[in-house]
Amino acid sequence: MSDENKSPETASERTPDKAWVKPLSDYGPIVVFFAAYMGWDLLVATAALMAATAIALAVSLAVNKRVPLMPLITAGVVGVFGGLTLALNDDTFIKLKPTIVQALIGAVLLGGLLFDKALLKPVMGSAWPMDDAGWRKLTRNFGLFFLVMAVANEIVWRTQTTDFWVTFKVFGIMALTFAFSMTQIPILNRHRVDEEEA
């Protein structure tokens, strides 16, 4: 009888997230932001980004019954800096948003290593089975990468036009992140463990 009582809970815990929700949450708001900027201006795009981010979180909660931590933090930063942009009619705040998010992620990843916690492992461990040494290296590398990207955003928005910054935000950051991820494949291969061992 106890086994019968436990089986629904276990099944519920093992129910995977709907695969389409993550790309929608990750890329939907940025696509809306870019489309709104191309059609109007940065203030309209900021309002659209805020609305799309809220909708993406609501969809994640409704479909997967949870909201991942990083999209929730990002939504909070978007809400604060987007709200300041609209309230003060000053695009400086929305341009600072990627700096804050990237620096925060980098600081969290590197800070976790100070306490011997490779914080990428609980997020990506099921996708990339590796030993602990590999997770520490990957966490360090991504932590440093995100800090570099925060600095890059600061340089771009302070020295380039708004059009250039929007292109960098939408396409440049994504391309650089993808390219950097590809450079980490040797670590994944060197420290890979089989699924049974993991």
What would you note in describing this structure?
It is globular, with a radius of gyration of 19 Å. It folds into two domains: 90 residues, no CATH class; 101 residues, no CATH class. The chain is built from nine helices and no strands.
Count the domains: 2
Average per-residue pLDDT, rounded, comes to: 86
Helix and strand content put the structural class at: mainly alpha
Number of helices: 9
- Proportion of beta-strand residues: under 5%
Tell me the number of strands.
Answer: 0
* Radius of gyration using CA atoms only: 19 Å
Described by strand count, sense and barrel closure, the largest sheet is: none
Query: What coarse outline follows from CA principal-axis ratios?
Result: globular
Order of helices and strands: HHHHHHHHH
Helix content: over 70%
* Gap from first CA to last CA: 31 Å
Weakly predicted, low-confidence segments: 1-14
